[in-house]
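Hi C.,

You asked whether I'd gotten around to modeling the 194-residue construct. I have! Everything is below, sequence then structure, no commentary in between.
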Amino acid sequence: MRTSKRTQILDAATRVVQREGVKSVTFDSVAAEAGLTKGGLLYHFASRDDLIQAIHQHLADRWEADLVAAAGKPAAEATRDERLAAYTRVAIQSATRAELLLMLEGSTNTGHAAVWEAVTERWAPPPPPAPAPAPTPASASASASATDDPAALDRFILRLAADGLWLYESLTSDRLDPAMRQAVAERIADALDQ
C-alpha cells in the first residue's frame, strides 16, 4: 500500500526531530525532508502547532500499535498482566531520539502530553496510592490503602523497571547487547508470573 502524503510528511518531520530537535521543525525543513512543497504541507497542517501535535499523535499511535502487536489484542481486551507484559516487551526496543525529545517536550504542554498519557493509561499500571499511615492510638481504625496490596506495588515497580530499560539506552551511549536487553525484558515480564 502506498504511504499517504500525510504519513510521508509526519515521517519526514520525525526525521527532522531525530536529527535536529523539535525546534528545527519548520514548514521549510519538513517540506525539504519530505520532498514536497511548503504548500503541500499547508494543505495537511494549517500551522506549525498543528504539525507538532500531529507528530505527537503519529508516534503515540505507532507506540500503541507496537503494544497491540506485543499483546496480540487491544488494551481493552487484555488483562492487566497481559497489558504490563506487552508494555515490558515493547520497552526492549530502544526509543529513538525523536520519540524521547517529543515525549520530553510534550510533558510541558497539556495537549501534547495527553496523547502520550492516553496510551500509557491504557497499558501501564498507575502508581498505587500512598500507604496509609501507621495507626496511632487516636486512629486505630485507619483503613488500609491499595498499596497495602503488595501485588499493586510490584506491578508498578515492574513498570518502572520497563521504563528504566527504555530510558537507559535512550540516554546513554552504552548500548546493551541485544541478548542482554532481551534477557532483562524477559526477567521483568517473568516477574509478573511470580
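If it helps when you're writing up: The chain has nine helices and no strands.

Thanks,
B.
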